[in-house]
Design goal:
This protein is of the alpha/beta class and 505 residues long. It folds into three domains: 27-235 and 442-451, 3-Layer(aba) Sandwich (Aldehyde Dehydrogenase, Chain A, domain 1), CATH 3.40.605.10; 239-423, Aldehyde Dehydrogenase, Chain A, domain 2; 464-504, no CATH class. The protein is built from 17 helices and 18 strands. The strands form four sheets. A seven-stranded mixed sheet has the order 12-13-14-11-10-15-16, sandwiched between helices. A six-stranded mixed sheet has the order 7-6-5-8-9-17, sandwiched between helices. It has a three-stranded antiparallel sheet with strand order 3-4-18, with no helix packed on it. α9 crosses α10 and α16 runs antiparallel to α17. It is globular. The N and C termini lie far apart (77 Å). The protein binds nicotinamide-adenine-dinucleotide. Nicotinamide-adenine-dinucleotide (NAD) binds next to α7 and α8.
Length: 505
């Protein structure tokens, strides 16, 4: 019997929608349909595919308010954040790739060394086939749509499994595909949870793009590696913010408050650890507390989206308090009650053994830690298993570059937070346990492409010098290598004469 999926507003508990779950036994049929759709879609020109991208952008622009409402009721986000951080980045990437994709995906001419005189080289890009995209609940629209769009432009068909925590977003994406008349089965949405995700991974994808937790990412990476299926993993973070005494302090305070509490802290690149130089630590904390107390729940800070995440946040905060941390803003977890709205918390008196410094909290929590030297700040920033994003705050540009270059992270920002992800020209992705592979930028199309390197000969010469027979060739080739790899200005002339001699034989 089919399971009924019921979507509820995370903060009010009100039922938003209900429909049928995708049955696990339906997975092979989905891949068959995706494979047929791939044949059709990949045979269309890039220009034709981009007409759908234009239509999609127009549809999103025409229906902004409705889409924002859908995102808000699925997640409990505030409207401004649904608009700026979930919907707008999708419109932006559509526009970016509409212009950029023809340059990125066209044949790339590659130079051919003189040694291979007469030949030419190039790289061609082909779609992978059917790409499986599995997405999380924190930016359910953006984190589904951006890889979907990138995969479609590159010519793939897509099976998308959105998070079961925000399931109405899958319905929304199906609706968008219908509204723009995207050919049937070019995108299929699989509605369901972890078991369905596992079944899809065990199916026959030609590529996997996963955004979610480290734990799930590891399982998917292992499964995909067994069958050499190319995969990209966009995983968790514990992002450090380093504030030096010469930082633009007021700006750093505003940056920290926004970076830690936007989307109620449920951001893979949230500011989750703030390291402040001792000389300005006191002043920084005072200002932080003042600014944080100004935030309005429900207007600036939305609700949490996922009940289980609330338990993790509670566990981290209680662990910190038990080990001596001081809660400067927000409520003690014992006083949170049933509400999914959590007041932003600033904690000080932090020690390295606290979960709040080592594990991803994914909530409105900001531990602030003092440091003395540049070396100490770098060492502390690099001390977790994660490497997604980091920020360095100082007016000294040389120091900013020096420190940033020593951080082991996939992305970094100077005198700002999170924002590198918003530039569609910049590739995005993590290092260490934060993941592998990149999307956004040109890499975002190559991730969904199969590259082929080609070398072409006009086919006029009867044979090549390295072909058989080898008789009497060794010494001549040795001389050729010496001439070729020396700095001899007559190299070209020498090579030509060698080629002639060798080919006479
Ligand atoms: P999650 O790993 O629990 O679930 C993500 C998706 O994977 C869901 O659709 C889920 O149904 C599916 N899934 C779960 N187990 C699976 C399995 N065994 N096989 C296949 N699919 C499976 O993550 P979440 O709680 O939805 O998301 C929060 C996490 O995502 C955080 O760690 C956050 O940092 C990370 N995240 C990373 C980025 C990034 O770009 N690096 C962006 C947003 C969120």
């Amino acid at each position: 019997m089919k399971n009924v999926l019921i979507a509820k507003h995370p903060a009010t508990g009100e039922t938003i929608d209900q429909w049928l779950e995708t049955e696990i036994q339906h997975v092979p049929e989905m891949y068959e349909k995706a494979s047929a759709a791939f044949k059709f879609w990949s045979s269309r020109s890039l220009e034709t595919r981009l007409t759908f991208i234009k239509k999609m952008k127009q549809y999103l622009l025409d229906n902004m308010d409705e889409i924002v409402e859908e995102i808000c009721s699925a997640t409990g986000k505030v409207r401004t954040e649904a608009l700026t951080a979930d919907l707008m980045p999708v419109i932006d990437i559509l526009q970016h790739y509409e212009k950029r994709a023809p340059k990125v995906l066209k044949r790339k001419r590659i130079s051919t060394p003189l040694l291979f005189v007469g030949k030419s080289s190039y790289v061609d890009y082909f779609p992978l086939g059917t790409v499986l995209i599995i997405s999380p609940w924190n930016y359910p629209f953006q984190l589904s749509m951006t890889p979907v769009i990138s995969a479609l432009i590159a010519g793939n068909s897509v099976i998308l499994k959105p998070s079961e925590v925000t399931p109405t977003i899958g319905l929304l994406i199906e609706k968008i595909a219908r509204e723009i008349n995207l050919p049937k089965n070019v995108i299929q949405v699989a509605h369901g949870g972890k078991e369905l995700g596992q079944e899809l991974v065990s199916g026959t994808p030609d590529g996997i793009f996963f955004t979610g937790s480290v734990e799930t990412g590891r399982k998917i990476g292992i499964e995909a590696s067994k069958r050499f299926i190319p995969y990209t993993l966009e995983l968790g973070g514990k992002d450090p913010m380093i504030v030096f005494e010469d930082a633009p302090l007021k700006r750093a305070v505003h940056g920290a408050v926004w970076g830690a509490f936007t989307n109620a802290g449920q951001v893979c690149m949230s500011v989750e650890r703030v390291y402040v130089q001792s000389s300005v630590h006191g002043e920084f904390i005072d200002r932080l507390v003042e600014e944080t107390k100004k935030l309005k729940i429900g207007e600036d800070v939305g609700s949490l989206t996922f009940q289980q995440q609330k338990e993790i946040i509670k566990d981290h905060v209680l662990d910190a308090i038990d080990k001596g941390a001081l809660l400067l803003t927000g409520k003690h977890p014992d006083k949170w009650g049933e509400s999914m709205y959590i007041e932003p918390m600033i904690l000080t008196n932090i020690t390295e053994d606290m979960k709040i410094v080592r594990e991803e909290t994914f909530g409105p929590v900001m531990p602030v830690i003092a440091f003395t030297t540049e070396e100490e700040a770098i060492q502390k920033a690099n001390s977790t298993e994660f490497g997604l994003n980091a920020s360095v705050w100082t007016k000294d540009s040389t120091k900013a570059n020096r420190v940033t270059s020593r951080l082991v992270t996939g992305n970094a920002v100077i005198n700002d937070v999170l924002i590198s992800v918003a530039n569609p020209h910049l590739p995005f992705g993590g290092v260490k346990s934060s993941g592998t592979g990149r999307y956004h930028g040109d890499e975002g199309l190559y991730t969904f492409s199969r590259q082929m390197s080609v070398m072409k000969d006009p086919g006029i010469k009867q044979k090549e010098i390295n072909w058989y027979p080898y008789q009497n060739k060794y010494k001549k080739v040795r001389t050729l290598i010496r001439a070729y790899f020396s700095n001899n200005k007559q190299k070209a002339a020498l090579l030509r004469s060698f080629y002639k001699q060798l080919l006479k034989k």
